[in-house]
Amino acid sequence: MIKRFLLLAFLLLAVAGAKGQVISKNVQRADRAFDDNNYKKALDGYLRAASEEAVTAHLARQVGSCYRLQGDMTQAEIWYEKALQQPDHTSLDYMLLGFVQKANGKSELAASSLNKLYARQMLPDLNSNGSNASSIMARFRSGFLSFRIVPISINSAEADFSPSICRDALVYATSRFDRELAHLDRQINPQQHLSLFTARLSNNGELGTPFVFSNDLLSHFYTGPIAFSPSCDTAYFVRKKFLKARLGDEKQMSDNNLKIHRAIYNHGEWIDQGPVSFSSETYSVGDPAVSPDGKKLFFISDMPGGIGGADLYSCDIRSNGTFGEAINLGTKINTTGNEMTPFVAADGTLFFSSDTHPGFGNLDLFIAYPTATGFDYVTNLGYPLNGEYDDFGAVISPTGKLGFYTSNRPGGAGDDDIYKIEIEKITVTHSVEGQVVDEKGSPVITSTVKVMEGKTLINTLSTDAAGRFTFKLDDGHEVSLLLDRNDFFPATATISSYGLGLKPTQIPLKIIMKRDVGYTLTGTILSAADGSAIIGARAIAYPPDTTKAIVGVADQLARLNFKVSKETDYRIRIEKVGFVSKWFTLSTKNRERGELNLSTLFDTKLEPEVKPGVFGTVTDAKTALPLPNVVITLSSPVLAQNLKLATNITGKFTQTDMPEGDYSVTIEKEGYQTLNFSAVVGKQPVNLNSNYRLALELKAGSFIAVGLVTNKDDNTPLKDVTITLLNKTTNEKIQNRTDEYGSFDFKVEADRIYILKLEKDKFFAKTQMISTQGVPAGMFNLNTAYDLKLEPIVMNKAIEIPNIYYDLGKYNIKPTAALELDKVVTLLSENPTIRIELSSHTDARGGAAQNQQLSQKRAEAAVNYIISKGIAVSRIEAKGYGDTMIKNHCNKGVQCSEGDHAVNRRTEIKVISF
């Protein structure tokens, strides 16, 4: 068990501290044999003492350790249990019992013993659930490599262990005694000596006859294990001066420390350069391993400041041959127990052995994967490599298909034996189940998800109606996800399949995308002369590429509202005919998203251009409301022909570039009394309201219906809307069109019923009944009593029909549903060019096939009802979607209120052509 020397030294020191003040001479003699590693002689002495005197925890512990170090784990368990039955037992006894219970396959008992040790805060990092007796084994994870173990012929009756590959040779440590050693010291005890042997290694993994690696490195000292640089011209090997150190002999205890030596190969010989700089007289370093690029040296040590007994460390190998600082590999790798025999494979995977990470007993082999900050995802390599005995010292060929390791399992040639490993990589494919939501938890649909491995794009996905996406990911990969969608900030995520085990796994992932409200330019454009609104003023935002200018137009209240791009420098021009334009410079770089109010940032008032002319506002004399579409006629001898103007929706009119002179002004509108007066136009524009009351009196008994038609989505005025007014009494039909401000007016009669129809291309037509019954004569503003908003026709936009209810499991049309479907009939009648799909949806309860069938029958029942009302069958399609388009979180298996389920039981229509 020579390879356990360092671990044994740690245990011996702990035992030494636990000895009582009075120890019999029998036990003292057995202790000396134990300290000399003569475990058979020590066991005989301890058993003799146990038969003659009271058994103490120390005596029982030593008997158990003799059995353990000779491979008899059954007897070791019995005696460690006896040690714990004694009043002078220590925390060490829980550790020793737990280790041998693991070796004997008693995982639950081992966990219970070790948890008692955790309770004493000896090993707090090993188990996050100290109260759960099975938690240590619950942390076990299978590896991803399939191994076939093959015995080899190089093993001797002594210990052969810790192989290393150097070009076409296998080099290993051994305690065998061959004739090459005879000239050094005929008194060498093979059980207390190590040398380095080698065997030729063929391409197919066959080994030749072993022989001494190098006479240059032969020594009566303990020599081995060894590791090589990638070019095999530098070797790092372990050397120890004495083996027979006794407690209390500080000089020999110091000489007993393991040191790593460096040797250089030069002209056919290995030159020992002595211990490396981080070796010490006060602690041990051993088990060297060199990284595949030759830039780091890995080793074990019990140096101060570590985490456990033997810890894994690394240091830089500098280009000038010196070494960097020794860095502990951290708590992901090291435990409060012992980690040994590191090896770094060509792909960067760290192989090592541990007696404390969850395993099968004694030393087990583990791997850890490289990360940006070190190593992580520690994984037990499992059967058949690991068992109830010591398994350690693995080395893998550069191809990754062949390896060697050491075990003292039964059936070998001697103590520790080297075995060949034939390796096959097992690929396990996992499924990443992702969902993208916004800050409120609502699904983000049609988001683009790019799957990147490093800088390589390996997949492009799009989220569905529930914000979900899925893709396959083989084990041992780490990918990054780049998410993008209009009106959202880009998002990223990282997902790893390292250490998930051999069973395909669903990897859940939820990503939150933050909404990007973008930049909205707002403002109000007013006249600097009188503060009046400048309707139709334009704000033009010019980016560096001026061909991509963005234009915003002031509405009827002179308000601007339009989007601009992020991270862009703009020059902005505000203009309106008759006013002096203004320029501003504005950048969206490094600005918080949201509204940018130009009128707050700058002075957006425009100065009127000084041109001869007239302007004014015409109102209703009774209500003082502005009158649109009033005709103003200007005549004068200085004009070749009369000028005719019209007021806009705010009752304003203006005319510039008029010759100076005397003018006759006539203001007239149907239903109103005509107004006539004279005016003089000079060099400055004349406000006719300053000298005249531009208020029109209604003719006796006149009714004027006025209205403003707007877009339902953004409330902007709609021009060129066809307005048809049908008098129900006389069947007289008159038509009008909205002006550029969306306004219209009609002269109507008292006590009449009219049918008003609004029509515009690419908008749903609207028909309403209006009445003048009980309405006093004068101006009749339709917007105060009627909805004059038109809804744009958007292809495939779902429009829910409310109040469509069905009895449970049925699909017949109920009277309340018929009333709502009549509205669809009206919609189709008013819009004779559109075709629609009528769809029915269920909630997620019940079977998917049943829900699909029921929703299809309900949709067909609704369509049949609409066809029965005279709508052509070619204009409407029935489609049942079952539970495939759930609107909220109430998917299958989710507990929801009845109200939340009801959101998903709906009937919708959408335009599919027009």
Structure characterization notes:
This protein has 13 helices and 56 strands. The protein is of the alpha+beta class and 914 residues long. The chain has seven domains: 2-138, Serine Threonine Protein Phosphatase 5, Tetratricopeptide repeat, CATH 1.25.40.10; 145-425, Neuraminidase; 429-512, Immunoglobulins (Immunoglobulin-like), CATH 2.60.40.10; 519-601, Sandwich (Immunoglobulin-like); 613-696, Carboxypeptidase-like, regulatory domain (Immunoglobulin-like), CATH 2.60.40; 703-790, Immunoglobulin-like; 799-913, OmpA-like domain (60s Ribosomal Protein L30, Chain: A, 2-Layer Sandwich). Strands 1-20-19-18 form a four-stranded antiparallel β-sheet, with no helix packed on it. Strands 2-3-4-5 form a four-stranded antiparallel β-sheet, with no helix packed on it. The two termini are 87 Å apart. Residues 794-914 form the OmpA-like domain. InterPro entries: 6-blade_b-propeller_TolB-like, Bact_OuterMem_StrucFunc, CarboxyPept-like_regulatory, OMP_bac, OmpA-like, OmpA-like_sf, TPR-like_helical_dom_sf, WD40. Pfam families: CarboxypepD_reg, OmpA, PD40. One of its GO terms (cellular component) is cell outer membrane.
